[in-house]
Each structure stands twice: as C-alpha cells, then as structure tokens.
Amino acid sequence: ALICQDEGLVPIVEPDIVMKGEHDLETAMAVNIEVQSTLYKAMLEHGVYMEGTILKTNLVNPGLSCDTDYSVEEYSVMTSF
User: Fold this and answer.
1) 20 an active-site residue?
2) Annotated catalytic, 73?
3) Which spans of this chain does the record mark as coiled coil (predicted)?
4) Could you tell me which residues come within 8 angstroms of residue 36 by beta carbon, excluding any fewer than 6 positions away?
C-alpha cells in the first residue's frame, strides 16, 4: 500500500479468508475482523496514509465443509458488520 501511495496511486487492499475447513459463519466473521484489524494496524505502523486507501471487502462465508445452512439474511448481516 505504501509503495502505491509513493507512486501516486490509491491502494486497494483485499484481505481474504481461506474457505477450507468446517468453521461456521460466526467463526468466519471473527476471523475476518481479526484479519482486517491486523492488516490496518500493520499499514498504520508502516506509515500508510489510511484515508488514502480502499478496503475491498469480501463476503463472509463459512468453511466449505460446514454442515450448517445459513439464510441470505445471515450472510448479509455477517458481511456488513
């Protein structure tokens, strides 16, 4: 992100969560929050101008092997945190 800004570009950061596993939607949400928090903390520590970045969010999904069926509403609530 800092290299982009040094070159006059707006960095688009897109953290992604691996869908492999049995984790449920709530766990995926917690991991998403942790990953985004860690990413932004690291960018701050490296001197990235935060107001000059774009966060490309992803859809929060349970693991591919999760047995629980979730509604569209549940997906939307977890994704729009």
Assistant:
1) no
2) no
3) none
4) 15, 55
